[in-house]
Amino acid sequence: MMEVVSLEQFMAGIEKRNPGEPEFHQAVHEVAATILPYIADKPIYHDMQILERMTEPDRIVSFRVCWEDDDGNVRVNRGWRVQFNNSIGPYKGGCRFHPSVNQSVLKFLGFEQQFKNSLTGLPMGGGKGGANFNPKGKSNNEVMRFCQSFMTELCRHIGPNIDVPAGDIGVGAREIGYMFGQYKRLTNKFEGVLTGKGLEFGGSLIRAEATGYGAVYFLQCMLDRINGSLDGATVAISGSGNVATFAVEKCAQLGAKVLTMSDSSGYIHDPAGIDAGKLEWIKELKNVRRGRISEYAEQFPGATFHAGRPWAVACDYAIPCATQNEIDEGEAKLLVRNGCKGISEGANMPTEVAGINVFQDAGILYGPSKAANAGGVAVSGMEMSQNSVRVSWSEEELQKLLLETMQRIHDRCFRYGEGKGKDGRCDYLLGANIGGFVKIADAMLAYGVQ
Ligand code: NDP
Questions:
Q1: What is the pLDDT of residues 57-76, one digit of tens each?
Q2: Phi and psi at residue 188, to the nearest 5°
Q3: How far, in Å, from the CA of 265 to the mean position of ligand 1?
Q4: Rounded to whole angstroms, how far apart are CA atoms 116 and 232?
Q5: What is the distance between the alpha carbons of residues 320 and 343, in angstroms, rounded to a whole number?
Q6: Which residue ranges of the chain lie beneath pLDDT 70?
Q7: Distance between CA 269 and CA 427 in Å, rounded?
């Protein structure tokens, strides 16, 4: 019989085996803190070292990405693919292009992805990839050359039944198009190897909308249980990329007033609310002109631009949609003090551990990212299905499936988290971790020691 270890012993092992990887340690800590107590009386998981195995990626591929800029200079970046766990399906997870990308960030994202994909109920394992390339300020041709070079190596490691990458920070429709084109050219295969593709070449309707819409649906599901509503509520949102844009859109459709959006330079505060018309202007700003959110304050009277993050703005609900660790303990306290009643995480791991504790101690709704932002990967899974049978489902069908999927994810989290939070409330973090863990763990048990 293997000994049951304490959280401290478990984390000491993680830190020793993965030195200098703080984001990965943080993500594992958040999961282990809830899973270790859950499996304390389930010796089979200890004997088979399931949690230990889940924290060790199946493999990590790291490679040189060489490309030429518009001035003819040779540039060198580093690319990665972290294939974390394929126990319940092919590896699946996005690619991030951002200067802050390193192995720790991609391991945290790949680790989280296994649980998220499991929660969707679809047959997808967990993976993540990317490069420390900064697409900001690069010409279209430079981005194209980078994507082609990145895919030239990546194509050896992926496939529709092996590993199916998608977008993430810095990787949107443009980058997916360049990468899919290069894969097709190198392999002479037109197949569903990436998701988030253009509609002309195998993409799915509502994939772009899915993560942002899903995060709002998750909030709505939590609210439904306590007879709350988004109608007439104020919402603070961070980010102005793919996830943020569609979170704003869905909030506005449901009658909420969205007060803020942001990018890495600062945030805009619009007390009148960001409505559908203003959002169309933002989409054009970000996707066509590739401009900065500060321009919003010049365009719309009454709106102001500020340095920093938007969490000092009083709101009923907050939906962080930019990046990891964008809400620290102080900001979490500020949100609670200003009357915030719930958080739904569109970004991955946007709240530091101390911030999560603040939300949970205050007893407000807290929808963790691995559940709240799973709508994107769920529709990616639906894109894989459509590609496999060579059909395109209607928007109506997909909208219904997304809503049902988010409800199912909510219900799974509720099933495991009910009564485990402050004053008998639901602990959605615990529910999401256990709800995601069980399916993967049981598949791993079925495979024996490997
Ligand atoms: P985008 O690249 O489309 O947008 C990212 C937004 O966040 C931009 O406004 C960007 O500002 C801002 N941002 C990025 N890094 C920082 C930073 N370090 N500090 C402040 N602001 C920052 O990415 P997505 O919208 O696709 O992704 C956002 C988050 O959602 C990520 O955590 C991602 O992992 C997560 N996610 C995305 C999914 C998807 O379907 N796309 C699925 C599930 C999760 P700037 O332009 O100045 O860099």
A1: 999 999 999 999 999 999 99
A2: 60, 35
A3: 13
A4: 30
A5: 8
A6: 1
A7: 31
Residue 165 pairs in a beta bridge with 93
Give the right CATH number for 209-373 from 3.30.450.20, 3.40.50.1700, 3.40.50.720, 3.20.20.100.
3.40.50.720
Burial class of residue 239 in the structure, from the number of CB atoms within 10 Å of its CB (0-12 exposed, 13-18 middle, 19+ buried): buried
Closest residue by Cα to atom 39, ligand 1, is 168
Q: Which of 98, 113, 263 best tests ligand 1's pocket when mutated (most atoms within 8 Å of CB)?
A: 263
pLDDT at residue 3, as a whole number? 74
Cα–Cα distance between 233 and 245 in angstroms, integer? 18
Whether the Cβ atoms of residue 325 and residue 100 lie closer than 8 Å to each other: no
Atom of ligand 1 nearest to the CA of 196: 40
Q: Catalytic pick from 92, 107, 116, 128? A: 128
- Output the CA 241–ligand 1 centroid distance in Å: 6
Give domain 59-191's CATH architecture: 3-Layer(aba) Sandwich (3.40)
What is the reported pTM? 0.97
From start to end of 114-233, where are the E strands? 126-131, 163-166
Report the run of H or E that residue 260 belongs to, with start and end.
strand 257-263
Would residue 283 show up in a list of annotated catalytic residues for this protein? no
Mutation probe of ligand 1 site: the residue of 23, 97, 169, 274 with most atoms within 8 A of C-beta: 169
Q: What residue spans define the domains of the chain?
A: 7-54, 59-191, 209-373
As for ligand 1, residues whose beta carbon falls within 6 Å of it are: 167-170, 172, 211, 239-244, 263-264, 321-323, 346-348, 373, 376
